Amino acid sequence: MRPIAAATARMPGKGEACAPAVGEAGQAAGGVARAPGMGEVRPVGTGVIRAPGMGEVRPVGTGVARAPGTGDARQTASDVTRTPTTDKPRAATTDTPRTPRAHEPRFTGTGTNRPPVTREPHPTTPPRPPLRSLLFVPGHRTDWLPKARAAGADAVVLDLEDAVPAPDKPLARARVAEALAEAAAEPAGGMALFVRVNPLGDWTAAEELRAVVRPGLAGVVLPKVHTAVDVRIADRLIGWCEHERGLPAGTTALVPLLESARALHDAYDIAAAAPRVAYAGALTAPGGDVERAVGYRWSPQGTETLALRSRVLLDVRAAGAPCPVTGLWTDIADLTGLRACAEQNRALGYEGMMAIHPTHVPVINEVFSPTPEQLDHYTRLVAAVESAQRDGIGALTFEGRMVDEAMAETARAVLARHAHG
């Protein structure tokens, strides 16, 4: 095949292909060349290189080259060549590794090229307080709120979804609105009230949001979230409701429930989709939506969901969504099993759990709270590190362990969260 400067070359009986000019391969500096069996290949600097079965292959000045089963293959624009007998890109030999450039896109662990998701805080979004326990109460049974308060729940989720029979939903909405109005008249700092609305599948959820987003509401729990788009829609609707009620934008927290495989997979994007997202995490109750979606077999030990809960927690933390919580323990009488489950979740890094019965609240609160002895230990640790720093010492031995500023910072965070000292 003859080299081409800026035209198109065809081979008898073959398809067409485009490639940059390097001689015998029939490539053009600024035009289009065709080679047998390769589909269309655009010149570097003018577009995207494509090959059968490979998706997009981007040279380094415009992106990232990929080859099947190899993850990201990064090549310079002058290094990429093709041969008529293979679909794989071949890089020229070099002894000098290329330094990735700052403008190149980041990639997820699945190999999908997605633009980075950034979570920009809204200037009026208030800090979200840590919540150890969030107790579900049916929306039409607001008369149970005193029991939840007596149990010591940090928050109650008034449920307008699964816990309410269809004929009682209008009544539940009215009672929830009344409970929120009463809460707004009470002093701040008491039990927080959240409302679980119905999924964003029809106007029902929008009407519920307009009824419940008002003073006295701490947040909205949104079920059946599948993608970040669901969160952005809910965020916009809640924002309109806040404006209508005269509330500062971002006042209302949004708790997305990740109840499908797609949602669990996209936990980072969902958690980063709006500044109001908080208290997100993996809910792995037996027999529920998540078990059905993922297909695991639930056990009290939780080994089958340990990796799932860990990964979702990491995604939520990386997205910057505060105060991740998990759940649920549905065996009402088994408080020993509940404690083991809560301790495992606390060890992973969750800050609280959702609950379905008032008797679960004291156990959950205890597990997700430091003991007085732990708080005293953190107080002594901070004092020891700060004393050593004044003497020009960065690391020291404290009660048999090496500690430094990193450990002191962790201790300060725990003390601040629990208002100790």
TrEMBL record:
Cofactor list: Mg(2+)
Molecular function terms, GO-annotated: lyase activity
Residue stretches of biased makeup (Polar residues): 73-84
TM helices/strands, residue ranges: none
Highest taxon listed in the record's lineage: Bacteria
UniProt keyword terms in alphabetical order: Lyase, Magnesium, Metal-binding
Location of the region described as Disordered in the Swiss-Prot/TrEMBL record: 47-131
Name of protein: CoA ester lyase
